[in-house]
Amino acid sequence: MVKVLKLHSFYDNIKNGPGKDQYEPAHFNIVRIEDMLFTLEAPLNYRRRSYYKISLVKGSSTIHYPGHRIVIGEAALVFTNPLMPYDWERNEEKQEGYVCIFTEDFLPGTSLRDLPAFRFAENTVVELQQENFGKFEALIIRMDDELRSDYLYRSELIRSLLTELIFEAQKMVPATVSPQAGSNASERLAVSFMRLLEREMNMDVSYRKPCLLSPADYAGRLAVHVNYLNKVLKEITGQTTTQLINARILSEATVLLKNTKLMVSEIAWALGFSHPNHFSSFIKKQTGLNPKTFRNSK
């Protein structure tokens, strides 16, 4: 339904980028932002990618997510994952830094999507001071040096450095929901709910209606009472089960309305609404606009 950009689409916008269309499953590369082609006056276009990116950037820009945006003032680390639709707007022509691009197979055994920096849109941008920027730049330069070397175990060393970068940045991100093995039962339940919600609402999996629609549906699948699930989520995330479900539906609806030519009735069906009028009422309540007006709004 929503186009997912593949690796070759990333390299299509790189000066002197690789010309091949096939890439190894465990792919990793570093690209200088100065070598990337972009325009300042591009229309907003949410897209998912089939790969992860960690960008170390200098220069004013804005990351747009369905429902909100984050402005980068001077320098930041930016984390993006394959499930998170976004668009990146450059506010000024001068941009410097690096992009680490890699597939999930490059870091096997690491639950990247469970880390706050990759899972929650509000945590994907880590603002940096000059001293922090230098620390992360040094790690990326080391990875780039190894990438160009003929060291037999260079991939293993790069994985180690990439993991160090991720978890050094993770120290600077609030631990909204922790998936670690030592977490208590409430935290594990919250993580299970968020995973289930993401799987149900990911419209790129197939053109099908989600089968879990209400808090009771999710509670039943997780084998807990709906009141207990709501209590746990409220304590850990600060939001109720209904609020979390509605926020995720709105995020997906925003992408479908603004990035596809599907009729409102088709989007309503895809998101589990039994009637288009119910979907229209939902969008109106959440945004103050009907679906058609919301689709055409900035």
TrEMBL record:
GO terms for molecular function: DNA-binding transcription factor activity; sequence-specific DNA binding. Coiled coil: none annotated. Residues 191-297 form the HTH araC/xylS-type domain. Pfam families: HTH_18. It comes from the Bacteria. SMART domains: HTH_ARAC. InterPro entries: Homeodomain-like_sf, HTH_AraC. Keywords: DNA-binding, Transcription, Transcription regulation. This is Helix-turn-helix domain-containing protein.
